[in-house]
Amino acid sequence: GVVKRVPVTDEDSNVVDHVLVPVVGGKIEGGAPDKVFYFLAPDDSMRGFRIHSGDLALIVPARSPIDGAIMLVEYNSHRFLRKIKKLNDYSVLLQSYDREYEAVEAQISECSFLGRASKLEITL
């Protein structure tokens, strides 16, 4: 089978590592192999959604908010994973969950949706 070196990026978009991932049917988790990447979770802000600091979330590009999905979002000059809840055509809740559930209401026009987290790699 074909294997691709997929970059791992931190919250500042720096490539900090690479992971070998199988390419199945010309795709990685449904995304173009040269477009998918891993996001290194920088903290425990998504712990309630089973994503811990140091975990790798495989990001498949998506430019629009996907209701109920965990997505990599850029908002107020920060990149982070959040669970998305669409409120209407103009606004979303960006949900996090460390010790307590938190949500920030944001205008869709003020967010850059970079992709959907489709898979999680954890180190035991």
Provide structural commentary.
With 124 residues, the chain is mainly β. Helix content is 0%, strand content 52%. It is built from no helices and 9 strands. The chain has a 9-stranded mixed β-sheet, with no helix packed on it. Strand 6 and strand 7 form a beta hairpin. The chain is globular, with a radius of gyration of 14 Å. The chain starts with a strand and ends with a strand. The mean pLDDT is 96.
Task: Report the major sheet.
Answer: 9 strands, mixed
Rg result: 14 Å
User: What percentage of amino acids are in beta strands?
Assistant: over 45%
Which runs of at least 5 residues are low in confidence (pLDDT < 50)?
none
Query: Can you give the mean pLDDT?
Result: 96
Strand order of the largest sheet: 2-1-3-4-9-5-6-7-8
Order of helices and strands: EEEEEEEEE
Estimate percent helicity. under 10%
The DSSP helix count reads 0
Taken from the alpha-carbon principal axes, the silhouette is: globular
Report the structural category: mainly beta
Work out the oligomeric state of the chains in this entry.
single chain
Distance between the termini: 26 Å
- Count the E strands: 9
